[in-house]
Request: fold
Amino acid sequence: MTVRSTLETQPMQPTSGDAPSGQTVSTADSAAAAAGNLLPHDVTDLGLADEGVRRIEWAEREMPVLRLIRERFEKEQPLKGLRIGACLHVTTETANLMRTLKAGGAEVVLCASNPLSTKDDVAAALVVRYGISTYARRGEDRDTYYAHLNAVADTHPQLTMDDGCDLVSLLHAERPGQLHEILAGTEETTTGVIRLKAMAADGALTFPVVAVNEAMTKHLFDNRYGTGQSTVDGILRATNLLLAGRNVVIAGYGWVGRGIASRMKGMGAHVAITEVQPLPAIEALMDGFMVKTGLEAAEWGDLFVTATGNLNVFRREHFERMHDGATMANSGHFDDEIDLKALREMAEGHVREVRRDVEEYDIGGVRLNVIAEGRLVNLAAAEGHPAAVMDMSFANQALSAEHVAKNHASLTAQVYVVPAEIDQEVARLKLVALGVQIDTMTEEQKAYVTSWHSGT
Ligand SMILES: NC(=O)c1ccc[n+]([C@@H]2O[C@H](COP(=O)([O-])OP(=O)(O)OC[C@H]3O[C@@H](n4cnc5c(N)ncnc54)[C@H](O)[C@@H]3O)[C@@H](O)[C@H]2O)c1
Reply:
């Protein structure tokens, strides 16, 4: 492989198996790939690897917990010989997770969990610098998306790592013959966990899966603060709208919706929530937000953001009430929260790209904008969650992979929560990394909180 030494950033400690630190790649690597010197892959442009390495190293500085885990994994090799098939957003943070798994001794193959969230430079760097088979091209069509999933399945993974359950569901639906090879899996997001629980309830799931999303150190920080901030980031990068004074509607007041709502409020927007469950609706009210029905909100809102994990949340009856210039974005996992089929029909061909990542649908003189084709806006129009947040989510992934590698024999085919010890350990390591200390209970206090004798 041809290399040049032009990296300006301070080289990091190479993970075992990484190409030597401080080296960069040239387009000649495409030739190297063609000559068979790189592991199998399908990425947009290997020549982007230099930029990818720089950005992966930048993210790594914000991921101290994952780095501590990687250093331990290098010594202890808890994943030695394990084939891991991963279907995740191909971002700088994911690259650092892949390096950690590889450092732990695993053979890792990665494909994208969304056609629009792939960072092409990261995909190139993973192949060229970090020696990880990667199948991901930003903007890939549906056939390519599934070809990439199948390429991962072809490697006969023993452990799956999913974000949205597409790999697990493909293996169950189309490759039942290889299910017995799979020891266990992990799942990153709410939507994937819902799908897995439905599979388990149907008796369809054939191996245990740890729901990483259920860890407090995942959803409390990732779904709320990570998605909250990066959703605002994606909307601003795509539109450059002024949020102050604007009427913003958030559909869904779960972990993600709460994060987006509080960030929007912080930017000076008027925020209304739509919900289908009474509890989160009351919570939204008491947090100081308006609560409206979708139809009421449709007339009121300037900007609409979905975060429900549900289908057709904004649809024809809402589009009919929206005003000229209203803008919609989705931050839920799938691109079906905004009914684009209905919108396209209503626009009768009057659809045009008005900015990068913004399409305008003209429905009889009322122009409605949709950001990033209704795909998760924080990843499609921005860079996804900040690395400091993904540090904890992916620390959970790495430790959950270690947990199932050790304990799969005693687990059955169901959806497991992340063991409390892992959650606590991730929180502890994050505090250590931040240099923050907390108190410990005195012996007297320990006795007090565990005794039933003391009372009024
Ligand atoms: N963009 C990202 O990076 C990112 C990160 C984490 C999670 N997610 C995804 O975001 C979605 C929400 O995740 P969460 O953790 O907040 O889930 P959650 O279950 O905590 O919250 C979802 C909320 O939406 C409400 N809801 C459901 N249908 C609705 C409807 N038709 N109208 C209004 N509200 C409705 C539910 O009552 C619930 O309160 C999921 O699809 C999840 O996978 C995306």
Q: What stands out?
A: The first strand starts at residue 3 and ends at 4. The longest helix spans residues 216-239.
